[in-house]
Amino acid sequence: MSATGLDQLIAAWTVELPAEDVEARLQRRGVPAHVCASSADWSHDPQLAHREHLRALPHPAFGTATVEGPRYLLSETPGEVARPAPQLGQDNAYVLRSLLGYSDDAYDRLVADGVLV
């Protein structure tokens, strides 16, 4: 059978079925299958929900931001998402003062001169 013939058979079998039904039928028979999901579908995936992969976190500008959790759940070193992505300039003070050793006066001058956001 040609690839075109096989495609036609599959199309005829699946045309009236919901994608989730096709996925379940194939998986029950040992065929690795998954629906081709849109972003909206993906955000409601039961497996991702079960693994708590998507996390709702407070965000200073948007109220709540949904972010992805760790890709792997390891027993001895579990990852976590503590906050959404920072806003522009949100960590300037920490980076300049704590990590780079800027004095309070040097940092305040940068702010006063408009160098920092």
Query: What percent of residues adopt helix (DSSP H or I)?
Result: 40-55%
**Mean residue pLDDT:** 90
Strand/helix succession? HHHHEEHH
Please describe the biggest sheet, giving its number of strands, its sense, and whether it closes into a barrel: 2 strands, antiparallel
| N/C terminus separation | 64 Å
Class computed from helices, strands and strand pairing: mainly alpha
Strand content: 5-15%
Low-pLDDT runs of 5+ residues are: none
| Number of extended strands | 2
Quaternary structure type? single chain
- What would the principal axes of the Cα set say about the shape? elongated
Adjacency order of strands in the biggest sheet: 1-2
Q: Kindly provide the radius of gyration, computed on alpha-carbon positions and rounded to a whole number of angstroms.
A: 25 Å
Put simply, the count of helices is: 6
Describe the structure.
- The chain has 117 residues and is mainly α.
- Helices cover 42% and strands 10% of the residues.
- The protein contains six helices and two strands, in the order ααααββαα.
- The chain has helices at residues 3-14, 19-28, 39-43, 46-50, 92-99, 104-112; strands at 54-59, 63-68.
- The protein has a two-stranded antiparallel sheet.
Core attributes:
42% helix; mainly alpha; two-stranded antiparallel ribbon; 2 strands; 117 residues
Describe the SSE topology.
Elements: H1 3-14, H2 19-28, H3 39-43, H4 46-50, E1 54-59, E2 63-68, H5 92-99, H6 104-112
Antiparallel strand pairs: 1-2
